[in-house]
Queue: 3 jobs
Job 1
Amino acid sequence: MAKKSEGKSKNIAISRYGWITLFLSLIFIAVLVCIFKIKYAEGPMWRELGKQETVKKDREIRSNRGNIYADDGRLLATSEPLYGIYVDFMAEGIKKDTLMKYVTPLSQMLAKKFPDRNAAQYKRVILDGWDLSRKELAEIERNRANGSNKKVKVRSRYVRIIRPDINYIDLKELLTFPFFNQRSNRSGLFTEEKTMRLKPFGRLAGRTVGSIYKDMDAGGASGLELKYDSILKGIPGLKTRQRVQGRWIDIVLEEPTDGWDIKTTLNVDFQDMAEKALYDKLVETNAESGCAIVMEVATGEIKAITNLDRMSSGVYAEGNPNAFSYMSEPGSTFKTVSLMVALEDGVVTPDDQFLVGDGLFEYKGRVVRDHDWRKGKDKGYVTVSQGMYSSLNVVVSKMILKGYENNPQKFVQHIHDLGLTKKIEWDVPLQGKEGTSVIRFPGDKSNPWSKTTLPWMSFGYETQIPPIYMLMFYNGIANNGKMIKPFLTKAFLRDGKTEEEFETEVINPSLCSEKTLNEVRDILRGVVTDGTGKAVNSDLFPIAGKTGTAMIAARGGYEGYYVSFCGYFPSDNPQYTCFVGIRRPQGSPSGGLMPGAVFKKIAEGIYTKNSVVTPVSAPKDTIHSLIPAVKNGSLKNTEIVLNRIKQTYNFSGGKVDWIKAGSSINGILLDNNDSVKPGQVPSVIGMGARDAIYLLEMEGLKVNPIGSGKVKQQSIAPGTKATRGANITIELN
């Protein structure tokens, strides 16, 4: 009986073992099926999903945009990385007790470094972020416990701590602050890097240098930034981001190629002079807009170019490229073109005379008027030279009619041969017909020639020549007859080495014969000494040029005036050519008194800066009245200027950097500016804007300058403790 019972138990055990084996075998087979399915059938899908979770492909590495430099290497535009500062309050390593221990000293240091918030406000931002993270985590846990799939909008992972973006130096300092000096997973601190385009000289040459779009990837928006966008922006690189042990790391596949730098012909000091001189005159005359261009005679390099428009707010700022886009009738500056053509063709000599009478001349039903015809004075006969000095339309129109009335094609063809209508590629992006000359030609149906076009064209009407072409023509006169293209871009650089350099481009190697050139130059000098350009004459060096006043065509008639002056200096040894144009000034329009005054101010400023010629001597009894006004400021720079112009001075101070300046019967007196002390607001009264702003910003102050000239008032008293980030207004006169 016992044996039968044992046999039965053994059979049951074997049976159970068989079922277990079968069950495990089925599980094993199922696992194999799943492995096969996952590896082969669903393999591509899971591998792709895995890559998405651990690898992010084809992420672009932005290349560094090239810099734009002035002629001496000073930066006009550069790129700087800026950082947005955030805290992820859900970071796993943040400990409440550590945060509470350091939140007060952290807030105090943040307020001291970034004073747009005080310490209490910074503390509130941090604690609010922490409290918000706890609430959001609690809500996430409740949803999970309830089996809800409802998503919680998480805001505590991206709490901005500092309002403005900060630079790399400030970021490095920030990482030394209490709590933030820990590893990022313990502090929650993270940054969002941006690249900003900075202009160290602010708005200086703003329209010419140009701008880029807010999204840097979109590239240049205007000026040189747009014209040479492909050169400046470089070639982006490529990287992947891979998750390794819970951390994302970058794997570079292709290194980016940084953009090339651009060296321009612009001179920062000349540009500053031109902008200030033009700005002041526009404000004085309440004009619509203006432009000023300075060109180096021998090379064609544009040393300064400013374009100012009156904005809706009433202030003047860089707007349209006026030097290229003033497509209006040039007026009397064009008379020099007519004069050169007539002299070269032998139509007249400088001494030939024409009857002017009372300044009215009727031709085929249309009356040519001189600017002073209302006086009714009978001038009788006037020579060609005198007619140019006084800018008489009657003389110039009769001169051209004498030679070309029966053959106007010859006159216009000669203008074309000069190169004034040649299509030229400029350094700034333009639209339509901007930057080109439009001169009528007999028989041209697209721009019909009328029976009175010839005399009116002779004195600058019924034609369109932008300022840049007039500058180029007058520079040709200054450059011994060789007309060259004005240009802004001097070289492309890579890693400080020149990759491509631009040379002077000759438009016309010889405008006219030497005899004609000398006659034209003598007459242009006479315009300044004895004619409409007397206001331009300088006691320091000779200037030659021509005034221009033209009515502006609008809505089938004329509205307002365009006044200009174009010339070169010193006229006996030309170094620079300059054009100044002012559009719709208020008051009595005058090419000599308005743009001529700007020209003179620019020219004398350049003379003082460069010492182009030897200063003229003055009688001993007038020496004191000729002592230059010296601003307070940098001792080193003041001494350089005074030594350059051979001006004696007395310095009673010791080894200092900043001085006060004054004068007496014995000359210029320099003394130590003892208000310049670390941690205190210095006295900047009597300084120029550049020195004043530099000193104040060195103490961490934010400067708001008003006006131009010397500082006459500052909103925070000298000697006051300097609070970093505080605003200070300086009023200049």
Job 2
Amino acid sequence: MKVDDRLEPNVFVIFGGAGDLTWRKLMPALFDLYRSQSIPAHFSIVVVDRVDLGEEALRKRLHEGVNEFSRGGTVAAKEWNDVAKHIRYLQGDFKSHATYTELNRLCEELETEWGSKAQRIFYMATPPFLFGEIPTFLNYAGLSADRERSRLVVEKPIGYDLASAMALNRTLASSFDETQIFRIDHYLGKETVQNILAFRFANPLFEPIWNRRYVDYVTITVAEEVGVEHRGGYYDGAGALRDMVQNHLLQLLCLVAMEPMVSFDADEIRNKKVDVLHAVRPIAPEAVHEFAVRGQYGKGWNGGKELCGYREEDGVPPDSQTETYAALRLFVDNWRWQDVPFYLRTGKRMTRQASEIGIQFRAVPHRSFPAEATLDWQPSRIVMSIQPDEGIMLRFQAKLPGAKLLLRPVDMRFNYSESFKTPSPEAYETLLWDVVNNDATLFMRADQVEAAWRILMPVLDVWKAIPPSDFPNYASGTWGPDAAQGLLTHPGHRWPLPVELHSGADSRLMPPGDRAESPRP
């Protein structure tokens, strides 16, 4: 284990640290950080939870999680022990002052032992109802007083709607300064998401055509092949719009549509994102059915396996009205994007996993080629694939070899793993490193969260007032409900099939002239 005496001592406190999030994500990410980056010579991971669990039992459980989920794979005993000795367990009630008094004593004891003040990072890996409780107790115990060294990390969801998000932000602000609060969205830690800014603003080739004059429409897809798995109880109280659109998809919209930043300063970038959200055209309640579609998966097949419907999942009521699919048509009313449709969709139990952004360019104003040469004509397109493939594809027209003049679309592909020959860090690894380094660039600010909720509230209110009459309305293993096609009202607009970026993929193997979803998958 490599340590660095120049790095400031660090106490990383995880509330609810005996739970699944720490086991699957946080501890593997922290371990990979410690293995691949320099770590402070003095650091401690303090797990706070209510369960009766000894320190050795906790270390054993976390070791199992690291072995299963660490980017580097199974960990040798000696390497793990180098980290495990820094893990401490504090059993206590999250709503008891005694817990925080003991935590403060432990932090001071560590600082005395190290002979230096330490950064104190408080990560709330707890159910959302505690997000408003823990910061208040931290403040009361004096643990939030040092604005330079004390930080609070909040998982999603940030509220259930606009009113609850505003109330939570007020509670957080009463205990911590906004500069101390890190609202985490793991999607923003993905290399391909961060690469959107590099692709747009580090390459003068693309930015001049990134506007309404050249772009016909934009599609943003986050499709999941899995169902709700073991999250049925939580998910049924949220739904696709709250769980995915309010944070992940609107964040991607911001990165695609934002104006160039003056610098890479955290607030400069976040200001540009907020500007996009403020420019999104409001959806009138009476027009929600024209701009939003919801769905719920029923029984179906995928990969030769029969799949149950959402209402048959564990923890889901048999008459649930919760959407597992949501699609929106949005417009960004500003100089750059006026009247360009942004089509957003997300769903569970779809044909395959795919997260990507498609930039569809306008057709050429005049085709000077013979008609027979352009039977398979397709406008140029850029696709930024986020997962499971990571990379970028550019589609353009080229002449087929031969005496005849025939044009066909061809693809140029950039694939992260093939180009860089090194695995990308996990999203949590990137984001936790940023928290330690006090870099808020990839984290949401209070006004950004509230602006996102304002966009969706008309849809949420109408969907709550008018229950769906056709659920379930798409089969597992398909691309969603037929009604989603109705959002693409402009001629020629289609939901594209997700691309494949590995070297064996070949668009010529796909149906000529289509390469998009049929109205019924």
Job 3
Amino acid sequence: MALLCLIITNYCIGQQANFSKPTATDSITLAKQIPLLATEVLSKYKDQGDQKNYLDDLFRLQVLAGDYADAVTSINHIRADSKAKNSQYIQHELFLEAQAKQHATNTSFKIAFDELFSNMLKSLDNKSAYKTYNSFASNDGLDELKGDFQNALTTIQKKDSLSITDAISFCRNYYELQLYQGIEAISKPLIKADCNRRYIIEDKLIKTPDGALINAIVVLKRGINTPQPAVLQYTIYADSTDWTRIIEPAAYGYAGIIAYTRGKGRSPEKIVPYEDDGKDANAVIDWISKQSWCNGKIGMYGGSYNGFTQWAAAKYHNPALKTIVPYVAAIPGLGLPMENNVFINANYGWAFYVTDNKYLDDKIYYDPSRWRNINFNWYNSGAAYNKIDSIDGTPNPLLQSWLKHPDYDKFWQDQVPYEKDFAAINIPVLTFEGYYDDGQISGLHYMLEDLKYNPKAVHYLIIGPYDHFGTQRGGVPVLRDYKVDPVALISTRDITFQWLDYILKGAKKPEILKDKINYELMGSNVWKHTASITKMANHQLKLYLTNSKNRNNYNLLAIKPNKKSALNQVVDLADRQTSNGDYYPYPIIKDSLDRSNGLFYICKPFDKPVAVNGMFSGELKAMINKKDMDVCAALYEVMPNGKYFELSYFIGRASYAKDMSKRVLLHPGKIESIPFTRTRLVSRQMSKGSRLLIVLNVLKSPFSEVNYGTGKDVAKETIKDAQSPLKIKWFNDSFINVPLSE
């Protein structure tokens, strides 16, 4: 993220020298002032004990100061000290070498960089070259880098003088902008030329049985004349300039195919996400299997939407499809656009992103202010959820079609394998997931259903402290302010192709797959391996949500209360000054929790270290004065230092608690049972003295539908339906089950 440019490492703290701030706003004058600032910082900057981070700052300052030889030396020290691969920091090295050559020979930066870049690529094999390509493009785009730098410039110019922390932060922002402004545009044609030198790349249109045309790009390594196993990516994210993704399977030694879903790329059809993807992917698989360059063995891989398309294709049982490797796989109707039958706003802008044109509408999608504003504008208006696009001002026909299916009905069920469909899927599967993947309930639902209906399924799982995007690359050192255990950082792609080699070429199984479930125990820096998710824990701790007080919390007890009683909660659904249901794990470790609403239940401290391993579940007993409500429950570890480590959460609609495909309204004034199971799997080593905290609440926020409890279609309810406040009695025989290992 762009915030990384603002992070200043701990060793800077305490170095309090002041520096003259840049006063210019134009790029020409800044280009003269910032080298002077970098030189001044270098004269006072000292290593405070974390050499890698010190060197990471140092080489950037040296480049800005024009000390190119010293910068190369610093990069080499980083590689030596951290055992970093030669490909790491390659973009920085070529950038500074091109600058040095520009100044030494009086040539242009472009000419110097072109020569260095081309020579570097020619020295690399296919896989090594592929792994360098992404280094030459910024993760968040040049526009965001420019915005970050302007914000940093505005901030420092408001200060009287700069500390060393301020100065390094500002220099890092400036350096990142200069780096990618200098190399990104001129790298793209060089990468394309390198790909064409290594591979035969052909753009195809494949006809499906119903006459639709699917756009596919085939990539074959030059000089290979015998049939090869093929690896397919089937995606809605059409981008004909993304050479790293396009050539990836070929770089790993396969016939590679990336096919775009119906209507994307050169396909002339209408773009309709999800609905045709299974049968279309199957048609593409059938076409691939008949090509002279394919030996009849095909694998698929990819994340999120591309994980969905693999399962959608597997539903058709094509004999040529030998394995799938889904990462954070989506399930339409179960994880998005609704979760446990609650429509959520997180993917609202995605409909425009993928349907506005034949490729991707980056300009619209990467406008966070628009999507944030629509949430609050709709929420504050009190309008029905199905009018949210009217509030935005742009019709969203995709959302409107989805809102007609609040049940998990046949519309959704037909798009993926459903129940007994899994029994006939007999190919080996490797699933990747993350504890903090927003869509984890989808990715693991496939696995749980696969094993439920086909107990002999060969299905492996790798899961660790990753979010949605981190899972797809193998994690980041710091996730939502949580410092991840070093052992958790892996290469998702390398393991993927080790697996494909194992299935399609008879190579050995990836080393990490020591059993079916392979998970990193957060806080232990250790990978664990077991035969099933159930066996991750050695017992279930059942805790009752009592009404007995424990300071500012209620007791979470292992013994069921003798006398049935309840706690009262009142939620004004018409109130727009507050929101209910603060469940989202960002940051993962919190100093405090919002206690303005909700009920807080805490257990006694553990008298020894214990691990939470698996998915918590429970059953709520409640009486309300309306016909429905949306519930949320967040599970925390309260650490001995008083901080809150979020473990997992649940959100869901009470009327669908027992069957997501059929709504059964609650009876006002009657005690109802609301079971829940679809929570996030987590593995966390807790220390002696830690406690478990459950925060129970009703969901009412700008980020999802507001269920006013009338029993009508929730998407059509308005603030006028709020009428009297929602009154809940939460009974003390409500409980949660937490899977533990001691």
